[in-house]
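Following up on my earlier message about pyridoxal-5'-phosphate. Here are the inputs again, as you asked, copied directly from the submission form:
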Amino acid sequence: MKKELLRKLPAVDSLLKDSKIALLLKERSRPIVVEAIRTALDKERELIKGSDATLYRFNIDEFRKKVETEIEKSGKLSLARVVNATGVILHTNLGRAPLSVSALKNLIEVSTGYANLEFDLDRGERGERYSHLEPLLCSLTGSEAALVVNNNAAAVLLVLNTLAEGKEVIVSRGELVEIGGSFRIPDVMRKSGARLVEVGTTNRTHLRDYEVALTPETSLIMKVHRSNFDMVGFTADVPIQDLVRLGKDNNIPVMNDLGSGSIIDLSRYWGLSLFTGGAKRSGRMGTVPVIREPTVQDSVAAGIDVITFSGDKLLGGPQAGIIIGKKEVIEAIKKNPLTRALRIDKLTVAALEATLKIYMDELKALHEIPVLRMLTLQVADLAKSARRLLKGLRGIQGGRFDVSIRDGFSQVGGGAMPLQEIPTKLVAIKAKGISPDRLEKKLRTNSNAIVARIERDEVVFDMRTLIEGDIEIITGFFKGASIG
Ligand SMILES: *Cc1c(COP(=O)(O)O)cnc(C)c1O
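Thanks, got it. Here's what our run produced:
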């Protein structure tokens, strides 16, 4: 039966001759129509194979509609802007840091024409692509030299490979972390060719643990920032200053993988005004503790030899792996052939240089870099956005939706500062006749995708991660005809 139906499906050529399908050729080129017919036919086959074949009937009118849908789909770009209403600021699945306007402008400026990417205009000879970033990174962090590669995972791999291939690297057991997306310190270590020497226990590592692990084969001491988890209770860590001294005494470099790598100490701005804006959880009003994340400058000042961090986490720039440190270490890394394989392109240089430039003025950075702006938005401002959205949603579709403003918490995300709660304002929506799960899916699969979260059986929009125009997109969705 199924075989019979499959055999009877019309061929692409005969379909193209059908007058109803041929009409499509007037609007679209032949290869696009042919491809759409093929995809639609594949789906018919799946339908025949997958369901009760006795109910299946090939209908040319329905089939044409399916082909039209396929044509429409093929014209749409797969990677597109989405509304992030999750409240997770560095949402790894949603592309981490949104770029600042000036980074974007520079990206367009530099990449629509030619650029002096590797050309020294003063001397008229070959230059270095890293030269556009190195002076800025040095002046912002206080380091001697700098280099930027594809991402921080690449940065860690490259540093380990350069300094420790075939040799031993000492790491505390409490720092053998897994970052999302299959980045695990022991795995990266193995791929770099370095031999991992674990010291201490899961919860406690002491300076003497490092001391007794030193051998003539030791070529690096590595400190990894626990970006995405924290340990409480009976714990002990060795301060970076002590590791630096141990390294100096034994002539062994010390590396610090910082992960997020913040250049601004946010805890200075997360003052009382931000954290007393009516934060409420299980009936408790009051201040939320502010966690101080170590800055990149802290590590440089402590005398660490080489530091790595991401470009698109707390820094708020494009995806990149930033390596800063002592001159001789950075020089050695630049000479490693692996550097060529991990190098950044002009788009990254353009966006990163413009982002770093903003940091020359700290207050400007808090204002212009989206990640920093979102992180320091006052609850009072979020309340204003919430009221605006509420107003836009009230009375839509005959009062079908039950809309209210709630207190809630946003997250830093991107595996950074997991324990830091950031008070925020949420707009919660309940619709008659549609479950929260279905509504959440409808929002997500809308032509302007809206990613929201579900909390206590309601779809909620967190005001903190919305950017300009997003409120209009959300109200536009609810004004739209069929929500189901
Ligand atoms: C995020 C992170 C990485 C990986 O950085 P990417 O830029 O995502 O490659 C490595 N180490 C630590 C500690 C991190 O937090």
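One observation from looking it over: The first strand starts at residue 83 and ends at 84. Hope that helps, and feel free to reply on this thread.
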